[in-house]
Amino acid sequence: MRNSTKTRVKLLMNEMTSSPHPFGATRQRQDAQPEPVSAPALRAEVRNLDFWYGATHTLKSVSMAVVDCKVTAVIGASGCGKSTLLRCFNRMHDLYPGNRYAGEIQLYPEDRNLIEMDPGMVRLRIGMVFQKPNPFPKSIFENVAAGLRVRGVNGKSLLYERVEQALRGAALWDEAKDRLHDSAYGLSGGQQQRLCIARALAPQPDILLLDEPTSALDPIATAKIEDLLTVLRNTVTVVIVTHNMQQAARISDFTAYMHLGKLVEYGVTEKVFTTPQSPLTNDYITGRFG
To answer: Do 50 and 103 form a contact (C-beta atoms < 8 A)?
Structure first.
């Protein structure tokens, strides 16, 4: 199954070299010839995943690839299961009784099913940022250091180095370097969200999950987060849930469209938005529902 998925993703990657980007942007000169693209590395692969909240069957046989060091956007109307899918990746559903999974989410290169791994270890490898900023009631420094301390990083110089690295990675260092020991609550909403991204980045995760990370932010703060994600894709795999289709078109390489718990369409973002294969996808992106 993995070979067939990689072949499909390779074809999608080849499409990325020639497809016009929706909403005006382009990924490559129109007169340039597409170059051959080798099969991309996968960071994760969802295989026939089902999920239940108690007796409620929420995800239904979802299968999709997560390409390494690319941004994958998950879109769909409220209640379609996109946030439920995202939270399967870091096993957040395990915190509540009665929830259960079936199927697999394979992590590469180990080829291990994360549903069978220790949830604590999964969460250190897969960071998550939520819709609303949720800094801890601690200093800026201690917010970022929290995950590092869990990993056993306690040396003062190493801890400071990793905190600085994470804050730089979240484009917050210049704004926070002179106030590291001030309360995180003194930051603006957009700064708090970037702090949460820094906190998630500090343990150097394999995958960064973002659940509508800009929905509570103003346009300026939103633009900073989007700019940050275009940089982060060079070093970390990103999966983002968003209601904002223009945002998905701007920042993602791949897009998955979900409807009523099922994955309707998955492909290169340009193709999904300009020539969707499913009538359901077309109806959603053209605003007929959702």
So the answer is: yes
